Amino acid sequence: MLILIAGPYRSGTNDDPALISQNLHNLEAAALPIFRKGHIPIIGEWLALPLIHLAGSTRIGDDAWQEIQYPVAHRLLEKCDAVLRIEGASKGADEDVRIAKERGLTIYYNTEDIPNAES
Predict the structure, then answer these.
(1) Full-model pTM
(2) Are 84 and 4 in contact (CB under 8 A)?
């Protein structure tokens, strides 16, 4: 399965780079266990951040950032099979879960619930 990891990125940080970095680390911490279960983990920021930079963003929340940040995850959901929603308040991640449910995707709330991929 292709599994989108959704959780806080900017939420609760007041745009503090150290807190944002910690949130990204928390998202990424779920990726290796998913991979080891035989799936492909994906985090929207892995794709969005380079595009945001290329679009000329100069600060979090500017027009280029808004154009790309959330639409990347929404487009990814068209290709994903499931979502892992990690802990933490996040309107963006909640929206990802809402969209995923509309699409009939499976939502997991911890990596232990994700089954091993079939060989």
Answers:
(1) 0.94
(2) yes
